[in-house]
Amino acid sequence: RGPWNQSSTNGFVLTNLFNETPVHLFLFSMVVVVYTLAMAGNTAMVFLIWGDARLHTPMYFFLSQLSFLDIFFTSVTVPKMIGGFLFSWTSISFVGCGTQMFFFMFLGATECLLLALMAYDRYVAICNPLRYPSLMSHQTCLLMVAASWLGGPLNASIQTTLTLQFPYCGSRKIAHFFCEVPSLLRLACADTASYEQVLFVTGLVVLLVPIAFITMSYAFILAAVLGMHSVEGLQKALATCSSHLTVVNLFYGPLVYTYMLPASYHSPGQDDVVSIFYTVLTPMLNPVIYSLRNKEVTG
């Protein structure tokens, strides 16, 4: 109880991602600009898709959910990082750390599942176009999105509960700009080997299973695309699929690096750089990638 009480009372201290050097000031300014663009772009996509009847299709319904997720996903970590740099608000309470960790895992896992469902949507649209209206009805889309939103908090509850049960009796300084599971486990004064195995298993479920599902969907899509005789249909299929594949690679790649590789393969400094990709850069690029590659959104 002693170590637990100390953690609960004192909380933790997050490290600043940037210092006062001119180069880091420039990088910090770029992060603020990218975050602002991410918020503006995703908010615009949500209102555009919800407000324009021409975009009331399953693909854009999933895209609106993706933009809605990204608005909150990037806001879980970046405002705290900005406040830490500008006002030295680097301390975070034990409850605050757990809350940030929960919502980060919740929204991240939900987005992983949603991207896999978007791959299935593209598979049905290209491989079974005649059955697309019945297979991807409005009710089906709602059920698919609800499943992704329910799977996220389930994963987050398990991860957060198991992480916070460890005693933290050593350093209070988290070598990261937000409370992420691997960084927090480095401070635990207990053997975390068994939990890291649990983390690996949940990573298999949340990351590698959706990746396998996406790969299988695109294998069928590739076979169908190669058999197309219409050049226009081929170009449209490749445009929509390449957009989704770009988003998948940008989001899944850094997450696999952080959560699937053993801790000995990456350092806290490397984790900071990699985390920037899926917390700031990818949420900004998602609406750009889809809006520039889809004539309907551009119109």
TrEMBL record:
Keywords: Cell membrane, G-protein coupled receptor, Membrane, Olfaction, Receptor, Sensory transduction, Transducer, Transmembrane, Transmembrane helix. GO terms for cellular component: plasma membrane. It is a multi-pass membrane protein. InterPro entries: GPCR_Rhodpsn, GPCR_Rhodpsn_7TM, Olfact_rcpt. GO terms for molecular function: G protein-coupled receptor activity; olfactory receptor activity. It is found in: Cell membrane. The chain crosses the membrane at residues 25-50, 62-89, 101-120, 141-158, 200-225, 237-261, 273-292. Putative odorant or sperm cell receptor. Belongs to the G-protein coupled receptor 1 family. This is Olfactory receptor. The gene is Or2z1.
